[in-house]
Amino acid sequence: MKAVRFDEYGDVDVLKVVDVPTPTPGPGQVLVQVKAAGINPGEAKVREGLMHSRWPATFPSGQGSDLAGVVAGTGAGVTGFAAGDEVIGYTDDRASQAEYVVVEERNLTARPAGVPWEVAGALNVAGATAYAAVRAVALTEGDTVVVSGAAGGVGSLAVQLARRAGATVIGLASPANHEWLAGHGVVPVAYGDGVADRIRQVAGKVDAFIDTFGADYVRMALELGVEPSRIDTIVRFDAVAEYGVKAEGIADGQLEVPIAATYPLSRVRDAYRRLASGHILGKIVLTF
Question: Whose CB among 31, 40, 158, 283 lies 3.0–4.6 Å from 73's, allowing a Cys bridge?
């Protein structure tokens, strides 16, 4: 089977698609023929060696967590799935960017009818992270929350979940994505110099802040008067110790999962180049 591999830390040029043996599921495991696999910024950081102290790579390394596909086989003791079942899930083994992947049964769920493959393959990491971030800042009816990176893979889901919690949502994003945000009930604000003043102009008070981008947004949230307990970042892990903030971090048709682009597995380098270019609305997905 074909699978993504890299033998050393580096930029997208270290990625390659190679032939490797098709894995065999063990007890409690399911072999999935992958139809779609979302890509995530954290994977690029791991591949570049930026997360070595927290999540070191073992070479040769595979890549990818998100996946959706069809069950091709099951190991002993698997009772919830059978060959031919369509599933959504994830793997912790950096292995989803491949034609086949072995997944723990507990990490799979049935693909709901009507959910396109590319959306199903993009759901897990971004969806779970967005849900955890919104829950962490404890939104209630009438709150005002700011979301940085509001049009990204996590941000685009977080703003919708925050709206469903009854909050007024201010989304920081490039002007190209303001129409999408406004169409989902979000107040769009351009990032860049003067962003704090622009936020103050549209919000008398900011109650919570969800940072999906990084940079100095945690410090800005504190300057806006947000309590540390109601600031959640999925990027600045160092801010947890420095400022005391949090770092916690859909298939029924009530949330839209925007797909910015799809690429075949053979163009995995191009997919990550597009991810690195920024200003993306939603997710980028590898398709098979």
Answer: 31
